[in-house]
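Quick log. Single chain, no ligands specified.
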Amino acid sequence: MIRMGFVIGIRPEAIPEYKRLHAAVWPDVAAKIAECHIRNYTIYLREPENLLFASYDYHGAHHDADMAMMAADPVTQDWWRVCMPLQVPLETRAEGEWWAPLEEVFHQD
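-> predicted structure:
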């Protein structure tokens, strides 16, 4: 198992809509997340900085392949089309990234 963490900004005026969407995530999106070996997926909001922090546990053997499978899913693509305009990617993210990955520096079970 690998713990993953990511950060992205959110438009302040979009916070209520983002919360509404995630209170009722589309069932096919949730199923694809599970199919891609992701467990304990959580998104946190930090205001007033308007940052989203996401974390999950990856239980598969090929993270990049599973993420490519998720990205190829038409329902997931539709979900992203709804959510992405609400988000503000960090200027410092690498090319090709939307959510910027975080380095784990400490963990205790």
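DSSP finds four helices and five strands in the chain.
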